[in-house]
Amino acid sequence: MRFLWNFIKYLVFLTLLLLLGAGFYAGNAAYTQLFTQPWDKLLAIENHRNDLDMIHGLERKYGWERVAVTSKDGTRLQGTYIESPSGGHKTVILLHGLYQNRTMCVPYARIYLARGYNVLMPDIRGHGESGGNTNDWGIHDPEDMDSWVALLRQQDPQVSIGFHGISLGAAMSLIYAGTPQGRDMAFYVADSSYGNVLELGREKLMNYTEDQRILTGMEVLDPFFQASMYYHTRKTLRDVDPASCVQRMTTPVLFLHGDVDRLIPPHIAEELMDRCTSPHKKLVYFEGSGHANEIVDNPEGYAQAVGSFLESL
Question: Domains in the chain, ordered, with CATH?
Answer without folding.
Answer: 2-36+216-228 (no CATH), 42-196+241-311 (3.40.50.1820)
